[in-house]
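Q: Could you fold this chain for me?
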Amino acid sequence: MSDKVKIFALGGLDEDGKNCTVVEVNDEIYVVGCGIKYPDKTMPGIDFVIPNFSYLQENKNRVKAYLLPHGHDDEVGALAYIYKDVPAPIYGSKVTTEMFKNFAKHVGNGDVKFDFHVVNPSCTFYIGKRKISFFQTSHNIAQSNGIAISSDLGNIVFTSDFVIENNASASYLTDLNMIAKIAEDKTLVLCPESVFADKLGYTAPKYKLTPLIEKNVKDALGRVFVAMFGSNFYNIDEVLQMAVAAHKRVIPYDEETAETLKNMQQSGQFLLPRENYASNEDIHRYRAQDIVVLMLGYGTRLYRKIALLASGQSESGRLVSLDENDSFIMACPSNDNTEMEATDALDELYRSGCHVTNISKKVFFRMHASEEDLKMMISLLHPKYYIPLKGYFKDLLTNAEVSLKMGGNLTHQSVFLLENGTCVHFDEKGADMVPDEIPHGDLMIDGIGVGDVGSAVLEDRQKLSQGVVIMAVTLEKGTHKVIGTPDIQFRGLVMMGDGEALLRDVTKVFNETLREDLARGNMSLDEIKDDLYDHTFRVIRRQTGKEPMVLPLLIEK
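A: Sure. Below is the predicted structure, expressed as structure tokens.
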């Protein structure tokens, strides 16, 4: 009897991050990726978001392995929280496991005894009788891998993040020979990433930073500042090599940057010569034209660093301001969620008077597969089925359309567009999709708590971020006669001068509502509180456009 295979995602579909896909072969479970997602503006106070892993908890005795494609947080971060409840061997490259260790330590779980199995970038090994193959891919972190899991029906192949690249250093090279070897066995299903599926052509060489800024670094008459995302190790390494070639010293802007460089070095990704490195304290010891200041960070936090430095409010306390002889290279193109913050940072840079070079996302790509990269992978592996992973719905849909252009085995009946929690079942008879079969969703990480922040707490936090209105009045116990005058206070809602009219209107509505409700004589204090809330909240929302937390207090005395 042939194997039965089930594939579903706990995260990563129609969202940015939280990548986690589960493969079941008979009674064995393999988890491919186990990442975090960074919170958006609707999640105040939340550190990270991880997948709902209740299914893995319920079936933890069947979990045979975690297979980690590469060391980015969106592929490994959630494992630091899940592992205690669902332990299993962890397989990944040296760089991947080192980056995971650093993340686990960063979030306070570094003392957990993880069962690591370090594998070579391209290799084959067995878990029980199941053959597992890792094949190295080109991504912006070294020793990134795609993964193939064997079954009687054929291999289940995950590309993870990749580009087709034959002109890179050994740690960043796509191993086409290994992919061809895997393709010697039939491919049941190919599960590729989808982030850049709408980009025409190949991604390479548009992810390379050197051609865009090499002259700027070499010929600068003053200090050169380069701002980049801390996860983009390939491009960080490019900047370091450019600095060495130009005989300049690299200075980390802050502790976060220094820590990232340290992590890269510990995982064997680069070795900056001692004579080309200087600490932040040494910035005034060298000629301005001999200095490259590297600024690393993530998302909006990086743009905030840039804006503060440009406005003379440097967080470092040492690099106080930019001057007209300095050059600033902004090599951190925004995504759809951070365009406003990036624009503000760029505006401050231009105000500073320094020489600004803005590397836009039109000319500088992240290392994700474009249309021709995807077609090449399909051509090499000849899958019977196709499941696009990783990306928003538009990305998944575009990826599906790319696969249908290839023809062959891939038709509308063999290409599956999934949502988190939706399963595809495979057996010798074919494939069948079952919607929402698996529990899924977001678990919030708040400090050391996992999943202890629900929607009600988030709603309260959102309201608190828009201000608080406290309305208190004292009532005579028993008679509920009003004693004195109501005390109404605003916190974080409006400026003092602007609040006089609002305070007058809210006070009026509060007094009228309270008088009418008390006059009825048949309303409980809780019912009166609810009525006061409704009437005053509408006034505040109408006049301010905000929805603050409103707290009516009826005090019996």
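A (continued): The chain has three domains: 5-202+366-450, 210-358, 466-556.
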